[in-house]
Amino acid sequence: MSSRAILFLTNSELGQCNVALAVAEEFLSRGEFIVHFGSFQELVPLVNDMNERLHCGHTAQFHEVPGPSMEDLSIRCHIENISHRPGVRGTIKGYRKIIRMMQHWTPSEYLKAVRACVALIEELRPEIVVTDPIFQPGLEACQTTAVRMAVLWPVPLKDVVIGIQPISAILGKYPVTGSGFPFPIPWNLVLSNAFLILSAVLMIAMARPKPDISLDGRRPEGKSAFPLIQAYSKRSLNLTPAFKELDFPLVIPENVVSCGPIVRGHLPLSVADAQIDAWLTKPTILISLGSHAPLTESNALQTAKGIVALMTQMPDLKVLWKLKFDWQNSKKFNEVLGKDIEEDRIRIVPWIQADIMSVLDSDRIVAFVHHGGGNSFFEGCKVGVPQVILPQWFDTYDCATRVEWLGIGVHGSRAVAPDIEAEQFSKALRRVLTDEDLKCRARAVGDLCREEGRVNAYQQILEFCTKSKSD
């Protein structure tokens, strides 16, 4: 067995850890490194699932990092979801939610997490640590130990390099995350954009964690998670799923490498879910929204009405909808979609058994409706399918702006986000299904993304290790 080790330090939420799991799969299948994961306990089922599905003779080893996950923090501070409206007021409210969550990470908890990551690095002595850009204990541990580090970003290039763009462009060209502003920013929104940037900087600078409860008049030893560590640095390798063609024009340094969409290996749909494969007999719209902000009955109804309006005009379609909502017990919902569900034109499931990529790669999906998360955006790009974005928070608003600027999709709820309105949604669906130029652009993006990003990431990490040794 190889004595070379690689350590992945990541948050446990799927939106953050999915790229790490994808790259780890590549390392495991090659067998040249012992693969380790350091994260919160919630990641255990995902690592176990990865080990079981690979059958390559090698398994990743999990090491628990103590502390609350982002989901734990949201529960602790009573934030049911992180959705917010775009624009100045809505974005400020969104920033406050995230900072409030981080403030509930007590100094003693944060210090324990950092020390656990440092101890892992010192014990395992990995050849390289691959870290999640928002996993603060991992970033701090890498800085403390000066270990060779790669940052594996699950997001487009803008989120990686925005901090090193010309200041004039930061303030007046690129829409600040969460704002929902168009690109490039029109003159009448430049001051609003600059105000939001300044507000975010000040809120982070002034943030302080909630203190630990004192015991016997003394507080336990601790360390603040603030100020938040900036993940990008010139000395580390930065890997992103994006190509420059999939984002706004940006200044990109040499140590930021575009790998292409980093998705996990997946089985053909006929193997992964034979039932769904057999059902996909017509062109199908796939709807898969994020789990961080489940649909309310009102928004589920509006989505359903939008689907009905479309299928009245385009009856030769099917819809596969991943929906975590108790629609069976909603009289209003069944009044709208009951007939189509009975006729099996629309199939609603709480979870799709197969990987989303297995469904998308079936060549029968003609439109992909999602919330605008990085993973979903890159999955849509990978298969060259037009996208309809129903954004709800932060970077998902960027995604809606991005797909329209690239000409590969449509913002499906511009006037009402984070809510959904039937007529807007129906029009967005109709456009991506009938606009030949848009469909052609989406296919061209799919052609660009044919290579496997996880393989490119694997190769880049190996080259970085070799180059670092020789320097």
UniProtKB/TrEMBL annotation:
Read off the SUPFAM superfamilies from this record: UDP-Glycosyltransferase/glycogen phosphorylase
- Keywords associated with the record: Glycosyltransferase, Transferase
Keyword Glycosyltransferase tagged: yes
Q: Which Pfam families match?
A: UDPGT
What Gene3D superfamilies does its record include? Answer: Glycogen Phosphorylase B
> What EC number is given for this enzyme?
2.4.1.173
> Which top EC class applies here?
transferase
What protein does this entry describe?
Sterol 3-beta-glucosyltransferase
Species of the source:
Penicillium ucsense
